[in-house]
Amino acid sequence: MRFTFRILLALSFTLLIDPSQAASLDAYQPKPYVQFQHPDWARNATLYQLNTRQFTAEGTFAAAEKQLPRLKDLGVGILWIMPIQPIGQLHRKGSLGSPYAVQDYLAVNPELGTLDSFRHFVATAHALGLHVILDWVGNHTAWDNVLVASHPDWYDRDEHGRFHPTPWYDWEDIIDLDYARPGLRRYMTQALLYWVREAGVDGYRIDAAGLTPLDFWEQAARELRAVKPVFMLAEWESRDLHARAFDASYAWSWWDTMKLIAAGRADATALYPYYAWNRKFFPREAYRLLYTTNHDKNAWEGTEFEIFGDAANAVTVLSFISEGMPMIYNGQEAANHKRLAFFERDPIQWQDAPQADLYRRLIALKKARTALWNGADGAVMEPVPNSAPQQVLSFVRGDAQGKVLAVFNLSAQAAEVRLKGERAPGNYQDFDSGKNTTIAVDQALTLPAWGYRILIQ
Length: 457
Hints:
Blueprint lengths: L1 H16 L1 H4 L24 E4 L1 H4 L5 H5 L2 H7 L3 E4 L33 H13 L3 E7 L2 E3 L3 H5 L23 E3 L5 H18 L3 E5 L6 H12 L5 E4 L13 E3 L1 H11 L9 H9 L6 E4 L4 H6 L3 H5 L3 H10 L3 E5 L24 H15 L13 E2 L8 E8 L2 E8 L5 E5 L6 E5 L5 E4 L3 E5 L4 E5 L1
Parallel strand pairs: 1-2, 1-10, 2-3, 3-6, 6-7, 7-8, 8-9, 9-10
Antiparallel strand pairs: 4-5, 11-12, 12-13, 13-18, 14-17, 15-16, 15-18
Helix pairs in contact: 8-9
């Protein structure tokens, strides 16, 4: 009797916990987190940030356009153009001001050219197979933006009812907008659509994206994608950005960690939390922007050589080989060692440099190997255990096409290391030397300070 009761109890419990016995699984099917498709042309693209003011001696669209064949030859796929609108005069910083203090969202800064010259720049880029995204400042405007007079109610106010800059930052040249106003949301969305329709831009890099409500960006992205496939990059670091609005977001925590490692204040294992979160917390479709410098870092912290010192090349290579979308800031391919002034004219000093060849080869490798593509189109990083984990980061990225084995000495001392486990062994070609090499079980490698080996199968 007791045995029969136990059987009946077990059967009833099985019915409760076994969906195939009790109910349909439909209610428990996972739902896709990301609700849109990336443009096909972004799947293996490298981003290039172009500061029109400093890119050429003339500082114009027409002069920058002449450099487009060179950028095509470099291999980059998406050009991010810093804000092109007129710059506010009131409370301006420096003699020329910040391009992020926008005076009129629907006009062109005459210092850079005209609407027609910008259209021509975009059309020429398209003819070369390049795509162009425009930097967009949605959180704030210049003090003398045209909206201040026509729609003062669209601005946020302080406790005294006055316009104010974004709190806690040294952004005295701008004032905050108030996205609780439906009229502002409609205006800003129409302004975003204007540049897509009238100039042919292919998307946006959104400045300080997280300071503006996410639901606004989701609505705006929906309307933009109804016109054509666009690429949306958020200057922010958050998983939620990727559900409906943004293709890519900044990997600030990766950059911050690499800076600590290069300064000797952290070891290679400090990267583990970033890569773990990227693997488990962010959706696979998310593109995480990896870079060594950009307009902010360059102007206030220095070039990649000042920031990372002897580690600069290793950090650059890691930004291309690990999961993420790599970016080049204009001048890096010329090994520019000069910080570019932000509020003044300070043209890049262009020169031939080995860096250009390094970038060209890295971009070509990324395009050729699907394992290195962006987001879910690429392969995940699988850790390769090694005998010196505090010094050496080692991993593979592999798919049906082949495998890439990467070993980085992220320290200022030479490293003697053994690769462990089953993921590393195989026959490869060395990325730098082009020579064939075999990695055996428990393979020993010697790496110089900040040295790396990229092995391709």
